[in-house]
Every structure is written in C-alpha cells, then in structure tokens.
Design a protein that fits this description.
The structure is a homodimer.
Chain A: H1 7-14, H2 18-25, H3 33-46, H4 52-59, E1 64-69, H5 75-90, E2 94-99, H6 104-116, E3 121-124, H7 134-137, E4 146-149, E5 159-164, H8 165-178, E6 184-188, H9 194-209, E7 219-221, H10 226-238, E8 245-248, H11 251-263, E9 273-277, E10 292-295, H12 298-318, H13 323-326, E11 329-333, E12 335-338
Parallel strand pairs in A: 1-2, 1-3, 3-4, 4-5, 5-11, 6-7, 6-8, 8-9, 9-10
Antiparallel strand pairs in A: 10-12
Chain A binds a DNA duplex through helix 2 and helix 4.
Chain lengths: 339, 339
Amino acid sequence: MSDIPTIKEIARQLNVSVSTVSRALNDHPRIGLKTKQAIQNLARELNYEPNPKAIFFKQKRSFVVGVILPLVAEDFFSKGISGIEDVAMQHGYTILFGQSHDSIEKEKAVLKAMVNQRIDGLLISLSKETNRYEHLLALDKYNIPVVYFDRVAPFENVGKVFCSLEKGTTQMIDWLFKQGRRRIAFINGPDEIAASKERMAGYIEAISKKRLKVDMQMVERTDLSEEGTREAMEKLLNLKKPPDAIISFNDYVHLDAVKYAVHKGVNVNEDILFASYANISANKYTAYPPVVSLDQFPYKQGRMAMEMLIDILDQKQSGTYSDALSFNKIEVPAMLVYN
Amino acid sequence: MSDIPTIKEIARQLNVSVSTVSRALNDHPRIGLKTKQAIQNLARELNYEPNPKAIFFKQKRSFVVGVILPLVAEDFFSKGISGIEDVAMQHGYTILFGQSHDSIEKEKAVLKAMVNQRIDGLLISLSKETNRYEHLLALDKYNIPVVYFDRVAPFENVGKVFCSLEKGTTQMIDWLFKQGRRRIAFINGPDEIAASKERMAGYIEAISKKRLKVDMQMVERTDLSEEGTREAMEKLLNLKKPPDAIISFNDYVHLDAVKYAVHKGVNVNEDILFASYANISANKYTAYPPVVSLDQFPYKQGRMAMEMLIDILDQKQSGTYSDALSFNKIEVPAMLVYN
DNA sequence: AAAATTTAGTCAATCGTTTGCGCAAGTTTA
DNA sequence: TAAACTTGCGCAAACGATTGACTAAATTTT
C-alpha cells in the first residue's frame, strides 16, 4: 500500500526543497556535498525511481518505443524481437508492442494507440497488406522517427534495416548449378511485395549470368497459402520438362511444396533439390528440410534496427540530428546454410 | 512539425477556459450544449487525443499493462500473446512487452523497467528459473495487480489462468490404453516446475485407476535440452522390457525423443506410440508427429488472463475491488487432438 | 572594511489534464 | 418581489520532476 516514493517525499523528510532534491539526484554542481549525499542515500533507501510520466512533460521523451511486427508466431519475427528488445533494454528503453497480423487496419489501430501513448520512436515491419503509407508518414508531423525492419517502406529518407536477398538468391542458384542442376524453378511470393521483387531480381540475374535464357514457365507464384503453393507445384510438376530444383519463397512455402511433392511421389532432394529462404528452427525436425537455405539473421537485424532508432533519438535529443545523416539504409548480407 | 494538439490549444481557439474544454470532452453535464458541441467538433477537426502521461498524474492510471513471457519463439507463447493483445486493445490498453528468456535475472530487470514506467497491471508467465518471488510480491506495495498465465506462482490469492494437465494426462493415458498399450513411459520435465508435478499426478492417477502398479522405471526426466531427452530415451529403450508408448513433456521434447528413437531403429508410432503436450503448429510438417497431443488453447488462455487483469483494474478504479472476490483461478480444460 | 565573487540553496513556472470551489446570471418557488 | 435554486462557466490547485532566476551567507579580493 505504501506508494512509490516521489521527490517530494524525500524533500519533506530531509527538510529541503524539491528543487534541491532534483538537482542532488542529477548531480548538479550547485548542491553541497553533504546535502547531496544525504539526499542520495535516502533516495537509495526508499528505492526511489523517477516517474517517467512526469519527466515526459519536461523533456518530451517517454523512453518508450513502439514495435509493430506482423506476427511473432513467425520464426523470423520471434527471433527479431529478441534482438530489438535486448538493445532497447540496454539503452533504458521499454517496448510498447503490437502485432498487425498482416492487416493494414490492425496496423493503423495499433499505431494510433502507440501514438496516443506518446512513443519516442517506432520500429515497424510492415504488414503484407500495407500499400498506403499515410499513417506512417503522419508520424513525421508528430516528430516520431521510424525505422523499418525487414518489410520496409518503398520510399527514401527513412531508416531501414533489411536483408537484401538479391545477392543471396544468386549465390543459392550458383550452388544449385554446381550440383549439376539446370532446370531451376522458383515459387515466388505475391508480386506486390518488395521481398518478391528482390528474389526475382536475384533469380534473373543468376540465370542470365550463366548465359541461359530465363524460362518463365519455371517461375510460379503463391499467395503463401497452402492452396496457392499446391497450385504452383501442380503446374511445375506437370511441365513436360519438370524442374530438377525448386526454390521456395520461404520455409513455410517450402513445407507446403514438399508436402505436395511427396504426395505426388517425387523423390525429394534427389529427383528435385529443394531450396528455400529464412531457415526456421523447425527445419531440423522436418522430414524434408531444404537442402540449402538462406539465413537472414533476424536477431542481428533486430539489434541493428533498434540501434539505428536509438541513435536517431539520441541525436534528436542532443540537437545533432539531421535527416540526411541519420537515416541509414543497412543491408545485411544473407548467408547460405547447408542442411 | 505541428505538435500534437492539446486541450489548451482548443481553449485558446475557442476562447474558453481549459476546464471548460476538459469537461466538454468528458461530457460533463454542467457544460452548455452549444459550447460542448463547438469544443467536440474542433477537437475532432484537430485530431485531438488526450495525453495519457498527463492523465496519469491525476488518475494514477496509465492504461498500459506489462506482459512478460519467457520467450515468444515458443509456439505456445506466441499464440498466447495474440490473445492477450487482442483483449488489451479492445479495452483501450496498450502493452509493454518483455521476454525473460527463462532467466530470473532478466525477469527482474524487465519487471523493474515496467514498474518504472508505471504500468497499471502485470500479466506474467514465470521463467523456468523463478523460484523466489520477492520481485513479484513487491508489486503489492505499489498496488500493481498481477495475473499469472500458464506458468503460475505457487501461492494463493493472486489471479491465475492455466491449463490443468492432470485430467488431460489421465485422458491421454486412457486413450493409449484403448490402443492396447500397457507399458506407457513418461519423459517428464524438471521436478521443480509445477507443470511437471501436474503431469506426474495425472500419470500416477491414470495408471493407478487401471489397477496397475506405477513402474518408476517408466518415468524419466529431462532438463528439456536435446541432450537431456536423449539420455532419458536411452534409459527407456535399454530397459529389458522397453515401453510400447512414450509420453513426452511437450512437443519439443517429443521431437528430440523421436529423433533418437529413429536413430535407434525404432518403428515410430508402431512399435512405440508417441504422445505429447502442446500441439505446436509445426507438427503437421514433422516426419513423426505425436499420435495424440494435448492442446492447451494458448490463445484462449491469453484472452482469459487479460480479461481477468482488466476486470481487476476496472474494479480498482470503481472502488468495488476486493482481494477475495477479484482474484480468480481459472482452469482451462485441455483437449486431446489426434494426428 | 567595503566591494566583488563564490557557494548553497530556495522560489516559482512549466508540462497537459482533471476537479473542487466560486460566481454571476437566469429561473423557479414561496 | 425577495429568497432559493439552477445553469454555465472560469479560477486555481494538484499530479512529479526540471530549470532559470533569485537570494542570503560565506569567502575572497582590493
């Protein structure tokens, strides 16, 4: 029932003014040593902790940052948030958290709640549905900096940390080539999202470099549902010259693809080599893991994104902030993992 | 750059006092209809949102609740937090989030940060390491109610939502019995944690009910690491009469157990039926899913836990709060799922 | 010894919002 | 028509912490 102690309580007990207490706790030089120590001792004794809500008034900082992810049930994001959280904690920031569940409406609702709570900054991975950006651009008005993580916005002059999969895709195809595969198929994600475009660019580049022509029959598309992936697989397996390697958009698509392949009697990873992105932990337990997978280091990316955001916040505070210098774009290289 | 509008700004523009604006926005009866509407219209126009940090001063509520989970990478918790979040949002609460990573030190650190941010309440699933409770009991002093979720504290008079696995375990064993299995082994988790005790109680009850004596050779223990599970399996398979069914502490243990069994040439789910708890989504993709699994409905439990917490907060606010009435213990029944 | 400077502290305003109290009109009751 | 309410609104304090301006005492300088 005893309340959280305040600066006033300390002042009362020591018979000094609140300003003296405040200055003593902030180690202001104008406070005498004895007074300062008496105050600091009592503060320690009472377990005094400053009230961030009160400080917010004066300093206009809450030391709270918003984090919006599509859904933590996905392995990539659950690892990402650990990195995000660790860095935030280290720097004394706390996290307001919400999931968009890949709905733009939910994304807006969560964001609104966070703005109302007066977050200092936002770290977000966009929902798949997000194709309008007013709600995010509006943050500029409120002076809330944004760093995009993995699913980044398509405009410049904002903070971004992501993993360019273009080069990684090229590496993956080079490796499949070395295994003697030539009919390398690709089940890509929805055309609209940036992740699909990157992968496609890498695919085309790699195939072209081999001086082969890109056979568009080898490229299918899935809406990431099991059904969508099944349809894509159906088309690929029914080709008169079916593929000898299949790259899936991610490990979840891979699982659905392999499920169908097994159903159709394909000798998985022999007749057809399967490759994928993301490297979910469950891979080591699945019946047919991809032969090669492209790790995107979500924990590391999460750390970097939060570090970037905190940098920006610190610069804003110290007045050394400038759009041009502070908004970085970090491309984390992806890495092949052989299973 | 335009700042977030305040009540003052509205007062200035309409040439009334701030108190009038405040009352108008809160629909106070002493404000005239015309004035009230003019204020409400302008507020809508300016997109006014009250500043929760300021309200906190007067009302001592932040509309922020803390949520601490061991780690969202676990399927159970990632589903749980969705339920938690959905209910919180519905009631206008925002979530401060942190993971303990199953470390009591991290749990304390995260909790401290949340208390400093003045959360209204806490929803927590304890870390595996947590065997002392001072940091949680201290919340009482600060008048912060706690609801425990799944990994609950061992004392009474606090809110708890969890899934009693005792009955579920009994059901599971009954079912295995019906399949003709008699040598039903059990790989339990660490003795200290409540979850292990419950499962064990259910195991003993079920076996006893069948008028069989409990053979302690059939009960092994794992620290939940792959290595620990491997050792447990080794002992079970080396028995002169090895088991014809194995129940694992959860699906992760199951995966490790099955991996070892396959390695030893066991005909999984024929020679030995495998059963487990938790029902992770990845099950449908794994090579050897448990034949039967006990679902604990994490999303539903998450919802119920947050509903309980918000109830308590509302009661505190309205003064109708009383320890005895408000702290509930909800046992969600588990359900068998056949794969 | 008077003037100037340093030292150690207090006062009061401020941030955004709520709320008890007061006050001046207008309206009803006796 | 005076007394008693009612209606509609403003004043000012309060919440916790910070900070520029100020003051009184102690110390140094001339």
